[in-house]
């Protein structure tokens, strides 16, 4: 028969696990920020490429000059 002392984790074990998690989070957070920045930049480049392709297609279809303006402008 198990007693209460034989089940669960000790306070020291929990503190060690928390320290490991904090260390891994500290290492992973800057890398995650870099990933988010690269992802955002790639999305902006993709959006610009799509806008340029649409403007080119529209210009060819209409056989006239087409202007690409920045959003909100």
Automatic annotation (TrEMBL):
Name of the protein this chain belongs to: Type II secretion system protein H
Broad class of where this protein is predominantly found: membrane
Subcellular location: Cell inner membrane
Limits of the General secretion pathway GspH domain: 44-72
Listed InterPro entries: N_methyl_site, Pilin-like, T2SS_GspH
Organism classification: Bacteria, Pseudomonadati, Pseudomonadota, Gammaproteobacteria, Oceanospirillales
Domain of life according to the entry: Bacteria
Annotated keywords: Cell inner membrane, Cell membrane, Membrane, Methylation, Transmembrane, Transmembrane helix
Transmembrane segments: 12-29
Membrane topology value: Single-pass membrane protein
Family the UniProt entry places it in: Belongs to the GSP H family.
Pfam families assigned to the protein according to its UniProt record, in alphabetical order: GspH, N_methyl
């Amino acid at each position: 028969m198990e007693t209460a002392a034989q089940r669960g984790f000790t306070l020291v074990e929990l503190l060690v696990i928390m320290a490991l998690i904090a260390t891994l989070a500290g290492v992973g957070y800057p890398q995650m920020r870099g990933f988010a920045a690269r992802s955002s930049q790639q999305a902006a480049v993709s959006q610009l490429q799509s806008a340029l392709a649409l403007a080119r297609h529209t210009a060819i279809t209409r056989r006239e000059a087409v202007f690409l303006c920045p959003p909100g402008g």
